[in-house]
Amino acid sequence: MMLSVEALKIRYGEVEAVRRVDLAVDSGEIIALVGANGAGKSSTLGAIAGLVPAVSGKVVFDGVDITGLAPEAIARKGVSLVPEGRRIFAGLTVADNLRLGGAVHLSASEARAREEEMLELFPILRRYHRVKGGNLSGGEQQMLAIARALMGKPRMVLLDEPSLGLAPQLIDTVFDLIAELRRNGLTILLVEQNVALALEIADRAIVLANGEVVLSGTAKELATSDLVRQAYLGA
Amino acid sequence: MIAQQIINAVSLGGVYALLALGLAIVFSIVGLINFAHGELMTLSGYALLAALVFGLPFPAAVLVAVSCGALAAVAMERVAFRPMRGASVTSLLLTSFAVSSLLKVVFQNGISARPQAVAMPDWMTGAFSFGDFTIGVGPSISIVVSALALIALELFLRRSVTGTAMRAAAEDFNVVRLMGIPASRIIATAFLLSGLLAGLAAMLWVAQRASVDPLMGFTPVLKAFIAAVVGGLGSLPGAVAGGFLLGIIEVLLQATLPAAVAPYRDAIVLSGVIAVLLVRPQGLIPAVRVQRS
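Predict the joint structure of the above. Result:
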């Protein structure tokens, strides 16, 4: 098991965003964390990455307790979050965005080689290499955000709503890419509001509602479950 | 006469620009307006005095003084501001006032409340002559030093990884941390740069006045703060533009105002500042976006 989250609880002031979340991710799989707006998905990812403090509970990565570590320390252990809304550095060029992604993880020559790999994987970024991130379209920014997170050769990627605000055709491109990353052996925890899409790509899925796990199983099981079909797939 | 005034104007503007940049760099990263910035200047001034008294040659003394400013800024962050990380803007502001007052009292009681003369080398007070023009060596050096410092800073921010991370941190600090880049390193570098710039500004300031006193940093940093606000708080190009603008306007008013109106120079300058802010509330060159951790 690569990542495990036990009895995670998160509170923002009086509001309990996450009541209790337990989950485990094995090496090389895609786990989808699905649920409605405000179910606690992003907060869970934030707590794993160290951006959101947990009230209680435990996050273990590779057998090491990373609960309460600073985000930079968790990133150095090989966990990389692609945050919701992409949050690329708008004033920096595509090249500089990528450079920062590998800044602490790679030597200068490794970083150049890795950047070349990223430009192979995302040809659009080669075309806009010297363009400021803020001038890219939403889909291009999403590619850049993913490439930036991959620059440091993370062992696990946390993807927060990669389809948000993208045109349907671009969503397919992004999800094809996620599937390819997984084929290359990357472990992925995917948060997605588009449940049908998430279940198509994931190995297993966890359904959150009101800050609690209400259902979990293989993606196939969930796609055919009555609860998921009624509540999220509109069948 | 006019050439001399222009040199003076650009030279004063350069000093304001260095100080305003120091304030802007720290503000863009931590959201703190460091009112103890002036004391970094004063401290560098005293360090220069001490180094010269100990008999160091002038260039070595300047190096020591500027390094003292930079190290003091890093120490200030470590001792006073790091424990306050994540505190409200008001708490940070009050902390910087406290540091400022404390250092002033230390200077007054530990050294002297009266100005101390600094023996500047003779060649600095000389002047070049080109036909009818006479240009002071001091202001000319000041312009060259400011220009070199601005170019060096620009290169650092554009070319180096840490500089790039600082530009990114001014936009979105948390995402920089998600890249594995330590917050402490970014913040310490911001203070180091602001201290370096304050140290350089102090050298240029002392060179024109040949004395150091405990309140030395107050007026120039107040002006630099105004320059940073006019330029767009947290915007580095704005700080430079604001600094030069303020310096040039001050000197030109000084030179052209009739004697009866001259005492109102600062009032006229500040009215100009208000006018600028009425038209452009975000400053001349607004900061892109400031998101704090």
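Chain B has a mean pLDDT of 92.
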